Amino acid sequence: MPLFPLIFLNIKKRKPARAFSLVELLIAVSIFAVVSIAVYSTFSSGLDVLRKVKNIDLAQQMFLLKQERFAKDLRQTVLLRKPLFLGLKDKVSFGAIVNDWPCRLTYAFDNSTQSLTRNTDKLSDILTSEGKIEVESKSKPTVFIPKVKKAEFSYLYLDLKKNVYSWTEEWKEKFLPLAVKLNISIGNQDYATTVFLPTA
């Protein structure tokens, strides 16, 4: 048998090559698009949750650092010759050593800026010529904790008449209270910090 008829017969026996029709191609692209959108939205929402968790953790860590700084300042309260401790519901002032200088530190809640502020006044700046301490601060307050909804201080003492420990919202005695508590609201979180003061 000659070669040409064999080639011709083989070509006839082969099935014609099939291609995708336009409809099949559109269906495949549609299915791929739906699956891609589902996968993207799942990962996107997961990343948003992760970002929020990281931000919350960072905010809590920042507050814990500020809380520790506040506690450290209060614990190193020094008993100077002049009474420097003054405790109100929204403000506490006390004597401390800052950068090797005797100072008066003031932590106060500023409702206008919604923040807890910190003032540092050197004793040499707030002592008058008569030897009295000026009540008003000479330095500009700095924002210690921003975005604070509420901050309240309270003071622990021993009630000798009832022989029980009690909390009060003001402290104007010449001696130190046993502890200072800071109740603070930041965002949707409420925190309470109790700092016990050193006894003489």
In short:
The protein has 200 residues and is α+β, with helices and mostly antiparallel strands. It has helices at residues 3-13, 22-75, 123-126; strands at 86-87, 91-98, 101-110, 115-122, 142-145, 148-159, 164-168, 179-186, 189-196. It has a domain at 58-196.
Largest sheet: 5 strands, antiparallel
**Proportion of helical residues:** 25-40%
Query: What is the ordering of alpha helices and beta strands?
Result: HHEEEEHEEEEE
| Widest sheet: strand ordering | 1-2-3-4-5
Strand percentage lies at 25-35%
Mean pLDDT: 82
Describe this structure as you would to a colleague.
The chain has a domain at 58-196. Helices cover 34% and strands 32% of the residues. The chain contains 3 helices and 9 strands, in the order ααββββαβββββ. The strands form 2 sheets. A 5-stranded antiparallel beta sheet has the order 1-2-3-4-5. Strands 7-6-8-9 form a 4-stranded antiparallel beta sheet, with helices on one face. β1 and β2 form a beta hairpin. The N and C termini lie far apart (122 Å).
Summary keywords:
four-stranded antiparallel sheet, 200 residues, 34% helix, 9 strands, five-stranded antiparallel sheet, 32% strand, alpha+beta
